[in-house]
Design a protein that fits this description.
Layout (H helix, E strand, L loop, with lengths): L1 H18 L5 H26 L7 H21 L6 H29 L32 H7 L13 H24 L5 H23 L4
Helix pairs in contact: 1-2, 1-4, 2-3, 4-7, 5-6, 5-7, 6-7
Amino acid sequence: MIPGLFVILSGIYIYYSFIKTKTDVWSYIQKVVFFLVSSGLIFYLLDILFSVVESEQIITFLIVSFSISIIIFIAIHFKSQVKNAIAINYSKVVVGIALFGYVIFVQAVKYLWGRVRFRQLDSAFSQFTPWYLPQGFTGSDSFPSGHAAMGFILLTLIILLKNKKEWIKSLVFIVIIIWAVSLAFSRVVIGAHYASDVLFGSFFIIITFLVFSKKYYGNNQ
């Protein structure tokens, strides 16, 4: 999850640098949303590293997350505005995928589907449900896989290589695919997901990547 989270954060910070001088209402709304999302993702990173949710110091970690986010945004604000077209397009694709691919198509569906994870099934597998039958709000969130989705978010890094040699692009692409597939496979192996969970989690991100990269990056990969 960590590499994907860093990709999303980088997209947010680059896009903020791009719009930081704008004063229209929509830009202000985006700035506020970016700050809140940044703080939430930093908290998520701390949770992965230190099991914050299981700690009695959640408030302390929330304050730390907001503080780190504030420092980063202040630093970006006083730095030169990002004007590189490739970096800006990269940030737009990342933000689009994070919002539509990960938040809406993956995280929202998770809680609407309510599928029980494989490792949480009883010995008779009586709680098992096929992927195509949503169960509603059951508290379970197996379908689709967020980890698999986060693995394929790394595909956006290819955009930053627009002016690089083809062999470099191909090598990075292969490494990303190996990483994403390995991450998805590992989720099935440990019983956190079914194959259908990781397939659809990956599918949602790949589709949104193709849509947004086509819009902001064109056919010049």
